[in-house]
Amino acid sequence: MNLDCCWSREVIEQADCPNIQGGEEDLLASKQQRNLEKCADCSLFHRSLQQLYTESNPLAPIFSGFLDEFRRQKSQIQSLVSFLDNKTLEIRFLHELGYVLQSSVDLDEVLSVALTAITAGKGFGMNRAFLLLCDRDEGLLKGYLALGPRNMEEAGHVWNEIVRNDMDLQAMAQNFRLNKLSSERAKFHDILEKLTISLDDKEHILIKTLEGKRPVKVEQAFQHPNVPSELATLLGVDTFLLMPLISRSRWVGMIIADNFITHRAITDEDMHSLETFGFPVAFAVERAALYDKLQVELSRVTEAGKKLKEQQELIVRMENMALVGRITSSIAHSVRNPLMVIGGFARSMLKNSPESDPKRTFIESIVAETRQLEGVLDEILNYSDSLYPTRDFWDVNQLVKTVLRDTGEALSLLGYVTDFEPGDDIKSVYIDFKQLSYCIRSVLQNDIAISGDDRSISISARNGDGCVLLAIEDRSRHITQAQLDHFLVPFSETRDLGTGLALALCKTMLEKQEVPFTATADEQAGICYTILLPTRKEEQS
């Protein structure tokens, strides 16, 4: 028999076999391997086999049977290899997803990974995915997030971008979370807003699917007796997949997936793969949601602890200040009576002593020191009174005019010129009249040394947002801000009792009324005092 093919030869040349391609030169010297890989599909081999039939060779049907069985088994092996390759990719894919889902407690990251896995070609390859989450407080299943194109043009653009960038699944999910999450939510806002179903609606197909805890493939949705027409119209597809998210028998949510663009059939294999994927997704979503709630509760507890600590510190401070008030009031009252007696006798003696009396100088010293001590006692008693302010509504313009009238003579003796600009239609302020009057007098007559030629004081009042802004500018005193802050601390000066106490008392009094008081110093321009007086009772805590 004259055979056209080379299957019977041990060694052949490259030109002898039309099926051997570049890179397969090892088959030229291996007859057995060449027969297994190339001859079964070679037209020359089949021609030789047909020649055996023509010659009625009894080996022809045997060769033919062997060849058919060989080709059948080869096809099965190739199918198995392809199946194993797909399963290997799926296991690798699920392992990658499982790692991300198990390690993340960020809800947006978990959802981004889940939806990207469902819609990506490197994942399950669905066109669109809608995520609905259970809101147990409101008793609703609500649309939360969606991913996918809305038309063919957008689909082509997105898929071309994916091919061009060649990102892995995790990188795609990260890119979606950082750059597209908000835009995708806005893009599907109209659909997500209408995907709201009561958890008590047991007849709705989504709630039934949650109760069944198994994925459901819906076909012919527009004619399906269990699918509401508004749901089919909203999705705009005839076939879609419902995948319930269940974690430890708890309803977490629902994923609706479809092939809106390609209209590729959803297979049972798709359902099985998504069902396997649904368990870790449900667990990760529930864990991330619980973590978010935990962070909110932790924030509340932290804030409550902070407020409790502030209240405790306030109580301690108030108790200490009340104790200081009682002590200072007791000491002041104990000292005042004998001091008044001493001062009274001294002034009486001074009044009755002639100018030539050699003892007159000593008596004048006693009167002066007594007056200074009486001033210190007044400040101490005012500090005690400042702990218990009594507030009501008062006219600021009238209050300032009254203070200027009382202090005008003393300021004139020091060479001061005061200028007051009363505001128009000034609102009544909710304050302690006595304490605010004392504060303004103290600011005008404070103990800070005069260091400038410009002895002018400007006072202005104007309406603000829920308050009246009272500003006092003293251009005669030039110190640094640090020095001014020193004067605002009670009893910070011990060298001369009373020095700087008046300003500190002002700050204390106004703080008790929760009236903002600021003092800013400029070594060139002087000192500016600003007081924000509330116009409503609710401004007070």
Number of strands: 13
Rg measurement, Å: 47 Å
Report the biggest beta sheet as strand number plus sense, adding barrel if it closes: 6 strands, antiparallel
Structurally, the number of domains stands at 3
In CATH terms, what is the architecture of the largest domain? 2-Layer Sandwich
Helix content: 40-55%
Strand content: 5-15%
Roughly how many Å apart are the termini? 114 Å
Q: Let me know the average pLDDT.
A: 80
CATH class of the largest domain, please?
Alpha Beta
| Backbone shape | rod-shaped
Explain what this protein looks like in three dimensions.
This protein has 541 residues and is an alpha+beta fold. It has helices at residues 31-37, 43-54, 59-103, 107-119, 152-165, 169-187, 189-194, 205-212, 229-235, 268-352, 360-385, 396-413, 433-444, 481-487, 501-512; strands at 128-135, 140-147, 196-198, 216-218, 240-247, 250-258, 392-394, 417-421, 429-431, 456-463, 467-474, 517-522, 526-534. The termini are far apart. Mean pLDDT is 80; it is low at 493-499.
Chain-wise SSE layout:
Layout: H1 31-37, H2 43-54, H3 59-103, H4 107-119, E1 128-135, E2 140-147, H5 152-165, H6 169-187, H7 189-194, E3 196-198, H8 205-212, E4 216-218, H9 229-235, E5 240-247, E6 250-258, H10 268-352, H11 360-385, E7 392-394, H12 396-413, E8 417-421, E9 429-431, H13 433-444, E10 456-463, E11 467-474, H14 481-487, H15 501-512, E12 517-522, E13 526-534
Parallel strand pairs: 8-10
Antiparallel strand pairs: 1-2, 1-6, 2-3, 4-5, 5-6, 7-9, 10-11, 11-13, 12-13
